[in-house]
Amino acid sequence: MKINYLKYFMTLTIIFIFGIKLNSQTKYYITAPRLFDGEVMHKDWALIIENNKIINVGPVEQLKVPEGSVKINYPNATILPGLIEGHSHLMLYPYNITDWDTQVLKEPDSYRTVRATVHAKNTLLAGFTTARDLGTEGAGYSDVSLKRAINEGIIIGPRLMVAGRAIVSTGSYGPKGYDSDQQIMLGAEPADGNDLIRVVRDQIGKGADFIKIYADYRWGINGEDRPSFTLDELKLINEVTKSSGRVMVCHAKSKEAIRRAVLAGAETIEHGDFIDVELGKLMKQYNVTYIPTISAVDVISQYRGWKKGVTDPPINVLNKRKSFKDAIASGVSIGMGGDVGVYPHGENVLEMELMVEYGLPVIDALKAATSINAKAFHIDDSLGYIKPGYIADIIAVEGDPSKNISDLKKVKFVMKEGIIYVSK
Ligand SMILES: [Zn+2]
């Protein structure tokens, strides 16, 4: 506990110092031996930032130090765009501390939101300057308020895109297993048929940036994942969502739910545990991005007793490895999102380590958390790359994450919209 407090005060000190510095100085010239621009790793490049924008980037010998700029050099580091977490639940924290049912049913939204402010801070300080949050799991629209507090500078955290409550079909979601005489509050909002029109519009009106659908759930006769909505229902949801300028994204693990979600117009498939080469190709054809959440499967298996590296992997881990390889082979665009919240916020890099462990080339894992996520979430005109004119979301990490992905955890520098939050 003492260490945590120390860390907290050190962070505050850093913010305080640089907060003052920023007032008097808003031009930076940053150099390191490596710079990853969102697609390509460059050697000995420099970067110029003024206020909240990237002004220029290129080889050191071609970029003059602008007058009055602060020079920052990291002699053994790599500069990257601020990372983008594609699948977080800031209102949740690890289930090995408190199980999901208890968090959803017993913890007041106010308590969960207070916790979420710390989760948001930890996410930003880990180098994730943007995050898409995939549902509050019973905490109403607390994510909308969390986003607002970050945008207003009241608390620190990543730039958020939020789902709000998310939508499930009647009967399909949890918490489950309680006396059916009781009305149990669910982790998402149930709706079916034409009522989906009203619920989608209601969620949009209350602040959802996109509509998150649970296209399947483990409610098969033997507890297997089965589709929860018909194709027509998914098409209806998508039509209403699209007309507001937003997008539909689908939790889908089973083959049939993935197929329906893609045909109905989902822009990202979350989890996709049973994706195969054929489905991957279908997703590619429809320009759908795959968000694998490998960590969720890997970590939950460990919570349930799997001793990774000691005992044989359970069937769901073996299955996830196989399906992820199939996804790679299909050529579908693979973004990064780990279902963080299942494991601690701030440890987001775990998903990228597992992507590499499960067979993705390291450079593709770096692209997934930068340019690919930016494209998938329609923010690639200003984020996910280091390019002139882009928002100054920049990080630096010790070492070379294109050789060792875990180097992403050695965070030296975090800047979001020109403001420095970490500088070591
Ligand atoms: Zn999730």
Offer a quick outline of the entry.
By secondary structure, the chain is an alpha/beta fold.
SSE layout and pairing:
Elements: H1 2-24, E1 27-36, E2 41-50, E3 53-59, E4 70-73, E5 77-81, E6 83-88, H2 100-106, H3 109-125, E7 128-133, H4 142-151, E8 159-162, E9 167-168, E10 189-190, H5 195-205, E11 211-214, E12 216-217, E13 226-227, H6 231-243, E14 248-252, H7 255-264, E15 268-271, H8 277-285, E16 289-291, H9 294-303, H10 315-330, H11 349-357, H12 362-376, E17 394-398, E18 411-416, E19 419-423
Parallel strand pairs: 1-4, 1-5, 6-7, 7-8, 9-10, 11-14, 14-15, 15-16
Antiparallel strand pairs: 1-2, 2-3, 5-17, 12-13, 17-18, 18-19
Helix pairs in contact: 5-6, 6-7, 8-10, 9-10, 11-12
The CATH homologous superfamily of the largest domain corresponds to Metal-dependent hydrolases
- Largest sheet at a glance? 8 strands, mixed
What is the helix fraction of residues, given as a range? Answer: 25-40%
Total individual domains: 2
* Distinct ligands, ions and cofactors found in the model: zinc ion
Mean pLDDT: 95
**What does the overall shape look like?**
globular
Describe this structure in words.
This protein has 424 residues and is of the alpha/beta class. α6 (231-243) runs parallel beside α7, α8 (277-285) packs across α10 (315-330) and α11 (349-357) crosses α12 (362-376). The chain is 35% helix and 22% strand. β18 (411-416) and β19 (419-423) form a beta hairpin. The strands form five sheets. Strands 1, 2, 3, 4, 5, 17, 18 and 19 form an eight-stranded mixed sheet that branches. It has helices at residues 2-24, 100-106, 109-125, 142-151, 195-205, 231-243, 255-264, 277-285, 294-303, 315-330, 349-357, 362-376, and strands at 27-36, 41-50, 53-59, 70-73, 77-81, 83-88, 128-133, 159-162, 167-168, 189-190, 211-214, 216-217, 226-227, 248-252, 268-271, 289-291, 394-398, 411-416, 419-423. It is built from twelve helices and 19 strands. The protein has two domains: 2-82 and 384-423, Urease, subunit C, domain 1; 85-376, Metal-dependent hydrolases (TIM Barrel, Alpha-Beta Barrel). Zinc ion binds next to loops. Residues 87, 89, 134, 339 line the site of zinc ion.
